[in-house]
Description:
This protein is α/β, with parallel strands linked by helices and 297 residues long. The chain has helices at residues 25-31, 34-40, 68-87, 102-109, 141-145, 151-154, 178-187, 194-200, 202-212, 246-259, 279-291; strands spanning 5-11, 44-50, 91-96, 116-120, 168-173, 190-193, 219-224, 262-268.
Amino acid sequence: MTVKKVRIIGVPVDLGQEQRGVDLGPGALRYAGLSSRLTDLGYEVEDMGNLQVPVRDVLDGEREVHYLPSIRKVCEAVYQAGRDAIDDGVLPIFMGGDHSLAIGSIGGVTHDEPAGVVWIDAHGDFNTPGTSPTGNIHGMAVAALLGDGFEELVQVGRHGAKLKAADIVMIGLRELDPQEKVRLRESGVAVYTMRDVDELGMGCVAREALGKLSHLSRIHVSLDLDGLDPIEVPGVGTTSPGGLTYREAQLLMEIIADSRQLCSLDLVEINPILDQRNRTAKIAVELAASVFGATII
Length: 297
């Protein structure tokens, strides 16, 4: 794609999970220099500020339903922001916040035209209310996008599923709940676990993943920073050892950039409270730069 305009959209939502602090992620990414890094690569960057997200401390009445009503409202706003960005001919970056925002971002950018999704995560986010051990909605995002789960989330933005199983590839998985594992095996979604990355190498995995999405002309990247190893990125709320190295993640971003199909990006689950000198946000900025075309030479 030839889009040279980028729109930054902050989504400080921390309602989809229990660990506090991911609502500070957009600020951490700004402080780490996301806008200036992209400007240096030749992009015109527009920062829209943060979407309005209710503070969970005043939502006691929603606690028992895992903040579902407010998450739905946030995702509706994210959906509209994504749709508007595509209509305006700009490439949106959604800065989280937890991964529940992807229900809105992916829905919005696919409103008029489908896109392939590269989902980078330690977790499958493929639970439903009936399979989730915790009830946390950030672990249900992919299921909702495929039309399964809470009706309020499935219907965000437009009726029904926003993706088909063939439209999504997951990379970096290593921690799945028992029933989620069964659901994912039966789904038809292409999955590259950390074992696959270890055995095949990231170059092979990345090219195979893009090949599986070759029926689509656009790519949305949904990057959960816990897809990387916590040694690399300590500032995430749901750490899982044995993840991607920085260089593996960067190679994946570089290969996606080579395709020239990037249409939108999620950067989620950064928790500055748990971080070391904003290290995780700085790595996220460098990975974003790579997927936007930064090269070594």
